[in-house]
Every structure is written in structure tokens, then in C-alpha cells.
Amino acid sequence: MVLSHAGAMSTTAAPVTSRTKIGPAHVLVPLGAVVAASPWGSPGPALVLGALVGLAFGNPFALTTRKLAHRLLTASVVGLGAAMDLRVVARAGLQGVGYTAASITLALGLGLLLARVLRVELRTGLLISVGTAICGGSAIAAVAPAVRARDHEVTVALATVFLLNACALFAFPLVGHAFGLGERSFGLWAALAIHDTSSVVGAAMSYGARALEVATTVKLARALWIVPVTLVVARTFGRRPAEGEPSGARPARPWFIAGFLLAAAVVTFLPALRPLGQRVGDLARHAMSVTLFLVGAGLTRTALRAVGPRALAHGVALWLVVAAGSLTAVVLGAIR
């Protein structure tokens, strides 16, 4: 669930020199990050603000914002662990093993079928399917080198997932309230149906503290499946490397999950540290708003042009089926 897609969808600008034209984005990108970090910042508006800046003026700091978003997301997730009870985390993770495995398998199978029907390039369809099934940009970043995906295939997949993440951040709370979902049910649905951890956390934060706890826990448990799925996909779809290429690709290791669990363990078994853990959790929520602003700033006009109609149709259709199916299961009590 790492946010490498924020920079991958943007053009990498050269460092500012005396020959580089200074434009509004050189001021608006850092200023927007400061606003997102302020007490008035929140995930939804931060994402919209970043997207507006990126679309209107571009992002001259694409490489820097990509790296910073990755680091902030990692730190934010670990910080959120400091405000949670490890016993609750463990129960949620164990309860979700069965439906997580089933939902990932179904999403991947359906995604590949839709890609074939819509005549989407195999690897592009595979990357979109993996991103939808597990955790968005992180899964795409892990699988892409394992299947020798080309740059434009990765860009299209990441841009598609990014657009759907932005929609989910606002649409899911509205749908949740319309269906009368409690906080636990909403957190579970968000973790199953929203691509990236950042948008899962953003949507759940706006729904309530319990929703945030459940959503973060279930999503991180789901992110653990990046490694085995990457290995299976590499064995099934990976090509023989060309002469001079490395013989294999290592899947990304989501170390932030271990940090989340360690932080939760510390405050759970050392009760005296719980007040400090709550403060750390509050800081992590502000850092998540900054992360979403930086992700939004990666949505440039170049990124939008990279999303072809077939790839977008594939991503939207698969996402709607996954979202509707998981919502039905949650409402009917099949997933708890």
C-alpha cells in the first residue's frame, strides 16, 4: 500500500535553476502542504486542493512530492498504530483471513476476464486488477517489475486507480450514511472496496474513530497479501528476462505494517504510554492530510491523458462490482 503512484503519474521536473521559469505551482504546492498540515486541514479537502493545483498548474516538484508522500504515509500508518489496541487489531486481522483470500481471488479473476472482454492490454489489466484486489498503488508498484510491465502500462494503471481513489474518498461516506452503516461496518466495507490505504484512512476518518480503527486494521491485514500475490503473479505472467536483465524481481516489502503492529503493542502493554500514543495518533492524522495533498498534486493533465477509455472502463467496472458486492455482503451480515 505505498504511494509511489503519486510521482509515477507525474512528469519529473528538473531542479529549479536560473533558466527554469518560476510559476504559481512553485508557491502553491508547498503552501498547500502547509495548509493541509494545519489544524484546519482534513483528508478530503487536502486531496481536492492538491488535485486542483496539479491539474491547473502542474507539479514542478514531482520527484520530491512522490518521495515525501511515500515517507509520510509510512510514518502516518505507524503513528496511527500508537492510538490503537493491539488486541482489537489481532481480532480484526484473524476474522478477516477467509473473506480476504476469497475477495482477492474473485477480484483478480473478474478483473482479468473484464480486461479480455474490453480488450485492455494484458499487463495493464493485470495491474489494475491487482491494485483493485489488494491495495492500489502499493500492489501495482510491487507487481509491475515482476511482470516486466512497461512504463505506459504502469502509468495507466496508477492513474486509473488514483482517479477512483479520489472518487471513493467522497462517495463512500455518503453511501455509508445512506445505507445506515455503523462505524464498524463502514470501516470494514472501506477496507475491502477502496484501493489505497491513504484513501481508506481518509474516508474512515470522516466517518468516526471506530470506523478508522477497523478500516486501518483490516486494510493493513489485506496489504500483507502483496507478497504472496506478487510471487504467484510473477510465476504465472512474468516473462523470461532479456539478456543482461536481472533474473528476478523482488516484491516490495510492506515494513510499515510491522511498525504499525509494534506501535500498537507498545501502547497496549504499557498503559502509561497511552496518552502519548493518542497524541502521536493525532499527529499521524495531520500527516495523512499532507500525504493526500501530495497525492492530489500528482494528478496532472499528463496523468489524465494517460488513462485510455478502455483502461478506465475496466477499472471503473471492476471497482463498482467489488464495491457493490462487498457492500451487499456487509449489509446482509455475510462479512462481519
Order of helices and strands: HHHHHHHHHHHHHHHHH
* Rg on CA atoms, Å: 19 Å
Main beta sheet strand tally, sense and closure: none
Count of domains = 1
Q: Terminal Cα separation, in Å? A: 23 Å
Strand percent estimate = under 5%
Number of helices: 17
Highlighted features:
336 residues; globular; mainly alpha
Structure description:
By secondary structure, the protein is mainly α. The chain has one domain. 74% of the residues lie in helices and 0% in strands. It is built from 17 helices and no strands. The protein has helices at residues 5-8, 25-37, 43-57, 62-81, 86-95, 97-117, 122-133, 137-146, 151-178, 183-193, 197-205, 209-223, 226-237, 255-269, 274-297, 301-306, 309-332. Helix 2 (25-37) runs antiparallel to helix 15. The longest helix is centred in the middle third of the chain and has 28 residues, at 151-178. The two termini are 23 Å apart. The model is unreliable at 1-18 and 240-249 (pLDDT under 50).
List the helices and strands and how they pair.
Blueprint: H1 5-8, H2 25-37, H3 43-57, H4 62-81, H5 86-95, H6 97-117, H7 122-133, H8 137-146, H9 151-178, H10 183-193, H11 197-205, H12 209-223, H13 226-237, H14 255-269, H15 274-297, H16 301-306, H17 309-332
Quick structural summary:
This protein is mainly alpha-helical and 336 residues long. Helix content is 74%, strand content 0%.
